[in-house]
Amino acid sequence: MTETSAPLSTAQPPLVKEKLSRDDWIMRSCMVVIGLFLCVFILLPLYTMLSKSVENKDEAFIGLANYIEYFSTPALFWSAGNSLTIAILSTVIVLFVAFIYGYALTRTCMPFKWFFKVVALIPLLTPSLLGGISLVYWFGNQGVAKGLLFGETIYGPIGITIGSSYWVFPHALMIVITALSITDARLYEAAIALRTSQVRTFFTVTLPGCKYGLISAGFVVFTLVFTDFGVPKVIGGNYNMLATDVYKQVIGQQNFQMGAVVSVVLLVPAIIAFSVDRIVQKKQVALLSARAVPYEPKPHRVRDMSMLVFCLIVAAMILCMLGMAQYASLVKFWPYNLTLGFSNYDFDVMDGGGWDAFWNSLYMALYTAVIGTAVIFFGAYLMEKGRGFGTGRSIFHMLAMLPLAVPGLVLGLSYIFFFNNPANPFNFLYGTLGILVIVSITHFYTVSHLTAVTALKQMDPEFESVSASLKAPFYKTFARVTVPVCTPAILDVSMYLFLNAMTTVSAVIFLYSSDTTLASVAVMNMDDAGDIAPAAAMAMMIAYTCAAARILHAGLTRGLLKHSQAWRNR
Amino acid sequence: MDSKSAHKPYLKITDLTKKFGEFTALDNISLDIFESEFVCFLGPSGCGKTTLLRAIAGLDIQTRGSIEQDNVDISALPPTERDFGIVFQSYALFPNMTVDKNIAYGLENRKLPKDQITNRVRELLDLVGLPEQGIKYPAQLSGGQQQRIALARALATSPGLLLLDEPLSALDARVRDHLRGEIKDLQRRLGVTTIMVTHDQEEALTMADRIVVMDHGLIEQVGTPEEIYGQPRTAFVADFIGTMNFIPGAVTAAGTVSVGQSTFQCDTTYHANGAPITVAIRPEDINAQDIHDGDSNVVDAEVKSLEFMGSFYRANLIGPTFGDGDVHADFSVNLVRRKSVAVGSRLPVRLPAEYVQIYAANGS
């Protein structure tokens, strides 16, 4: 005991209640506003959907009767099994291929890596429908390679599995590459020093090192395939999946209650996969805390060449999918008149929305990218850099994480239930481009939010402390320091939002009106009407737009990094 | 500091407690800091020194207790409404702004005219000895230069209080030694009241007017560097600062303690007769020269090993007095040569009563 630490007195001084600065008030209010936006545009619609699933057609509460009906109707119930089968099958295939492909890109001296990287990312630029359409041309009733199926039909599980595997491949590959890039080279040096065989090194060092990445990729692939609507719609034939069932119940039979029930059945596995993945990813962070030495692969002729062959095969398949869609869209009348021309691009003479649909999509994607990036990045900043208000910030984070667990189709259906109600003050949004922009922002909120948070976490946390000591208002530091430093991440977020808004079908399929048809929806509708070639043409227009955006993004990022080289290099 | 304690303190901290959930980071701290003083908060990591600094800045406000700065109660104020400049270990310079812009950042918020800002920035760059570096970006400067810019930025608005949070810990040893002197010199010239948090005792001893030694959220001792080093009030302080020998013993009578088979004279004012105690003495205070017959506190020792430290030798002494443990003693090179001290030598050493500290044996 010393004289400066007073002995315990019975009367404690009162609790200090912090006086909030003007900045604190502004920051908290802004965060509450964005939080309320997420509540109104995610939580409340989901709640409406859940309550719809326990109501009858007259909107009276009937408990679990709809669910009982669902589970006692084999035709409906089997769809769940089908979805599960396809999702698991695709997950196994995609994980296997993506792991080898990713391994070749990160751990070997295979030539032309840049080429394989670019090709692997192509499916991100196309709507999931495009794979289905290409498969029709390859293996459909009039397909050029129909014989390869030995009498089996592509319209069904085979087509869905191939089509799904095609479009989720880059999602899995990106996670696998990240996981493989972060291993410590010293582990391999230790293994060599201990005279470990290459096979044993692979199973004791390589696999354990990226196991969390593989698990995470598995969950992502599973959820994407399980909830996808585009591929089974185009190539599913009579093979029913949950996502197509929702569509049929709502659009075909106008049975909204049963649509809601199927949505819940679709939502539950997605939420489980999401939660498990979050837990797994937390573990991976703990694994990474030590500073690692990057791994530099050494040439190994046999391995490098066999990897090259493998990657060539995969890349060829991806290019075949894209190439066939491009070819078919130029062919005059498949398969009878194979002369080439642009007649299929004359969308205005066809049903499905015409060129207006394309422009709608472009505007919608631009609005989503600009508004979405501003809202999401600012929200992430307020959450990450705000002072105090711990409860509010955790709630905000949970709200921002939620959209990742909600399939687009479920979100879209929830929006109908919520915004179509005339009593809803937001009813005016229904049928406008605005609601399409909003659903695109909310649907793709989580990944963008996490990208922004990661970038913000890399900034010195004391910038805000220093600014406060210099009496700078928070928005000044935000505009003059945070935004310039985080510009690469901001560009990434806007790119992500643009690409997804351009290609999504599931989130918008219930929400477009005749004035706001979108390109991706037009692809589906033209395909539905039998105009497969124009559908392929429209899908290619989307792909070219996305590719142009990607190139613009790459140019901007490069220019920016060059411009700010003086201060960015450490 | 006695002349100052008559004045009213510039910063008055009263009964400060900070809890993070169930964990008590600061436990009822009271402390006065006077105008123009350089105070160091010193302690091991997790002792609460940074928490105390952040409470003073308003960055993490205390759970209970009050802080007064310049006679104003600032206990609940947000950092923007307090008067301080702060420098962090990480520099926290805005990377996308030039050095000039960084220093001008706080001045712009005061809405000063442009030419006045330019002049002040020049003045500050001169002050920290980097007059030519204004147009560079922080990443183009060395760590030591960056920290000086951070210091200039913190001083730009002439705050009443300068807070330094481990400002030298990220720097190389040589740069650190150099900057240590510069900061101290600057502080003396400007006369700004300064608080520095550090875990480096050498930094605290060389720079501070007064040191506040902390452990487990409590203040262990407040005093000048000489007081802290020469008369550590607790065993923790004695152990934490410098090197200290601890030898178990007991008080036999007022002014006398027994250690092993010997008895020593020393001040036993705060300890009862028969109480188990620990005797503490620094290696450099153990004396092997000019020992005469009849001197008190002299014991026989044997040199078990001898470590060459450059300017002196550190001897490991054993003997019946020291029980099972070793005692370190620093002998000058001169002495070792003159007396031919070597491993195995036996020689008498004196533990002067004025340098012997005793602490209750139960740990504190």
Any overview of this molecule?
The complex is a heterodimer of chains A (570) and B (364). Chain A is mainly alpha-helical and 570 residues long. Chain A has helices at 22-52, 65-71, 74-107, 113-120, 128-139, 157-181, 185-193, 198-209, 211-227, 230-235, 242-252, 256-287, 301-330, 354-385, 390-401, 408-419, 433-443, 445-457, 462-469, 474-503, 519-528, 532-563, 565-568; strands at residues 331-333, 337-340. Chain A has two domains: 80-243 and 297-340, MetI-like (MetI-like fold, Orthogonal Bundle), CATH 1.10.3720.10; 350-564, MetI-like fold. Chain A has 23 helices and two strands. Mean pLDDT of chain A is 89; it is low at 1-9. Residues 1-5 of chain B have low confidence and may be disordered. Chain B has a six-stranded mixed beta sheet with strand order 6-7-8-3-9-10, with helices on both faces. Chain B is elongated. The longest helix of chain B is centred in the middle third of the chain and has 18 residues, at 173-190. Chains A and B meet through helix 1, helix 19, helix 20 and helix 23 of A and strand 1, strand 2, strand 4, strand 6 and strand 10 of B.
Quick overview of this protein structure:
Chain A is mainly alpha-helical and 570 residues long. The longest helix of chain B has 18 residues. Chain B starts with a helix and ends with a strand.
Most extensive chain-chain interface: A-B, 42 and 55 residues
Question: Compute the gyration radius of chain A: what is it?
Answer: 26 Å
CATH class call of the largest domain in chain A:
Mainly Alpha
State which percent range the strand residues of chain A make up: under 5%
From the alpha-carbon coordinates, what is the Rg of chain B to the nearest angstrom? 25 Å
Helix content of chain B: 25-40%
Look at the helices and sheets of chain A and give the structural class.
mainly alpha
Which term fits the overall shape of chain B? elongated
**Number of helical segments of chain B?**
10
Multimer state: heterodimer
CATH H level of the largest domain in chain A: which superfamily?
A: MetI-like
Say what the CATH topology of the largest domain in chain A is: MetI-like fold
